[in-house]
Amino acid sequence: MKRLFPYAVLAGEVGLEVLRARLDDVPIEFSMISAAQRTVALHEVERERWGTATLTVRVRLPKRELADGPWTNVACAAIVSERRTNVRAHVPLEQDEPGVWLGEVTLHRERHVNKAELIAQVSATVDEIDSRLIGRSEASWTIDLLATTPTKKDGIRTEWVDFGGEGAVHLDLFRSDPWFVEAVGEEPTLYLNKRFEGIEAILRSDRAVDRPAQNALASQIAQEVWTVLFTSVIRGLPKDDQGRPEWPGGWQESTLRKMLPDVLPDYSLTDALAEIVAREDGAGGDLHARVAHAAAVQARRTRHLGNFLRAFRRKAQEEEQ
Amino acid sequence: MTVDEGEPFGVWLGRQLRRRGVSQAELAKELDVTRAAVSAWITGRAEPRLEKIELIERFLGLSSGASVTRAELSDSADSLGWYHRPAHRDGGRELGNAAAYAFDSDLAVLAREATQNSLDERFDPERPVRVRYVLHELTGERLHRFLKALHWDDLRDHLHAAADPLRKTGRILRNGLQDLAEKDSLVLLRIDDYNASGLTGPEYGDGRFAAVVRRQLDSHKSTTAGGSFGLGKATLWASSRFGLVMMHSTLSETYEGQRERRLIGRLDLPWHELGDQQYAGPAWLGVPDRERDGTSRSWWADERTVEELYLSRGSDEPGTSFLVVGAYDAATEGGDLETMHENLVRGVADNFWASMIAGRDSAPMLEATVESLRNTTTVRPEERVDPHRHQPSRSRAVRAFLNGETVERITDAEAVLQKTVPLTVPPLKGRREAFEHEAVLLVTPMADGEEERPNRLVCMRGTRMIVMDRAVGEVVGTPPFQAVLLAGLAVGESEENAAAEAFLRTAEPPDHNDWKQTDDLTATYARGAATRLREFRQAMITMARAAARPSEGPPDEVPEALRGLLDLDPPQPNPAPKHPTVKSLTGEVRPDGAWQIRAVVRLPEGVDPWIMRPALRFGTLSGGGLPAGWAELEPESGCEVVEGRLRFTPGARTAAFRGVSDVASHPVAANLAIAEVDLVRGESAP
């Protein structure tokens, strides 16, 4: 989607960095801050209980462009938000030197659950109107309160569980299944059944000879995960007052954005969303087949299954000789 | 003219006679005294009476009283000339300077070698040595005046004779002469250092002057830094298309009772033949030395000659100005001034950024500037080479070390971690005790947006010139970092550090770019030196990796094979989507409040006609936007407008249309919202 601003905005990049972080005034290792992944991991082992996290942030603005442009009263702010708790904090930054703004952003543990988003915004007076947004950081930072390493783990949670064992009553019904996908709530979860003989051995093996089977198995699991996720997302899509589907946000939206281009390749994302709902309602014939195809693309089925079959046949031939 | 107080009259008189080529016997005859009397004056056994002194002054053309102040006459520019060394009698021929072949003759290398020499020759250790590079292109009248001052007419035939197109040096020479003739332009590169020793010492005997001007491979190792003016000085001559370098030195200690404006030129040609004479190649510009068959020796120049030769110095601080005549950059095939300027800045910054760092209480060792001129016009103004601009992370690391601001745990994007790397320094041959030197390892997160390769370790010793740049390798789970190793005197002043410094210097090859087993090392140190070096090299990498690694977290639950298949990161945008997309959107709000918009559409390959509705929305930052309608919609190319929709021409790959929004349909005033245009299928315009 292309956008137009009715006033002058910055074309240059607005850079956002987290320089350091403290949990209750005690600094955390810098290795828990990753500029490449734009992620800060706030969970330190043995420091589970903390009240506030303070991040020192620095924003770099296109200095020359700002100086030559029509903007006055330039101000810069960091914004922390978490969709789940609907928290949004606006922290004004202070100019350190021309084009460089610094400030401290505080997160209160009890106001957040999981992951907060950090962005920077630049505002200025343009055409005699105050405080207009003239730029924002291109990519946001993720402040992950539960992670121990700053890797962008925007993925599907995976857990090894003994289905039917103690503390896994909700999986008792599926005790004979190798895995189970739970696509409800804030975070979809893939449960892998420890009780199912061989699955852990294959998936955790680091022997090269197991690699084809390992990948084929992973691919099959992934295909099922994506199918379940997609199906459950389109059932519960929010609609606007005219009955048109809206983007749901969260992992639900991520799932759609990843899969829709393969489900309906000749539709734009917006059109594809509407079309999916129309076909779902009218039970349009090939939709489920298309979803299966899109899930297989995510699971890289062609490559992994192909490699497995080649390896399997080669082994069979060797045994015959 | 500087007077060395307390210089005996006899020494002064002897020098005046030598410089004028007057023998003791001639003076004795002129003054009507015996030769023995003159000899006694010169050796200090006796002093002449006042009337004889006046006669001496008159005879030497000096003003009355000159002998009291020990005044000197500048050497007359008229007596200057080029002395070309005759060919060896045994018929031996040197067809190029062997030392020059040891280096790549590009300006970055020249900057490395020349700056290193200046650093090694630092005079007052409390203050930085200042190095100034000036590129100066001369054309027209200025060029001709310069060439005249250089006595070019005495050189031209030799240069042509040596320009043998079959040899590398000859070809460079020939191209240089051709360019000079055709373009009527010449590039001079002057390298000045201040607060350096200058070219001290006698004309022919041991000393800095002779090491640079008279000798090859003499590294004049008496200084503490050692190894200055060694092989590296050859890069000066190698950077001149004519092999021609002029020198102007202000000495840190007097020679012949003088300090200022000691000048000499040296030309390094290959063997050549001119007329029926054969020449060895080297030639010197100076005043003829009668005691040595007219060999040219350095002269004490007047200010005008210095100016004419573009050798003026900015102050009377000791140091040397080298003028590379016909400077060129082999790396860029000559290259323009701008490129040469850049290469010099890069050469200085890459190798000496650490030497240019100042601590809170300590001056930098080195300050360097680069400047470019064409005649009297500034091409690039004098630019101070700023280490923090070229090497932000590593400069930060060294500064933190100098300021004692290093930490034990990295908690900050700009924190600098300090560790110790042991180096066992073996004893010198015949001694017993080895000792452990503690080199300093600094590790710091790489600065955001820095263009250096990540995860490298650079090593340096006393002068903080970069000796090695080694890969540490990526450390999983760690942000990119930079590491610096300070060894020897770079750690601080102490006897042991100096001994470690000497050990590492011995382990450097002539290029000073490695620490490894050298012949010198084997000859100087006890057995096992090479092993100690290997251990040191390994330890520094291991330590750097360990320092960069974060503390361990719990293992991940996700099996490796599943990891890449289950991530929810947004997919890369498809560069060639299979549906029409708005490729570019431009527009403005008209005075009547309507958006006037032009959109370019990219269409996928295919023959079926696409029919899409251009949807205009007034966007909010987060939400989907509120729809607005069009007052006008006008096709521009590749499409037609049918009932508010665009029907794209079958087979077209791009299309364009214009539109004006319907003010009445705006949900808010146009200048208060972002406008978005999208192409949608489905229902017709609302």
TrEMBL record, chain A:
Which superkingdom heads the taxonomic lineage of this protein's source? Answer: Bacteria
What protein name is recorded for this chain?
CYTH domain-containing protein
Protein's organism: Nocardiopsis tropica
Query: What phylogenetic lineage does the species belong to?
Result: Bacteria, Bacillati, Actinomycetota, Actinomycetes, Streptosporangiales
TrEMBL record, chain B:
Pfam families, A to Z: HTH_3 (PF01381)
Q: Which organism is it from?
A: Nocardiopsis tropica
Q: Which domain of life is it from?
A: Bacteria
Q: SUPFAM superfamilies attached here?
A: lambda repressor-like DNA-binding domains
Q: What is this protein called?
A: Helix-turn-helix transcriptional regulator
Q: Where is the HTH cro/C1-type domain?
A: 19-67
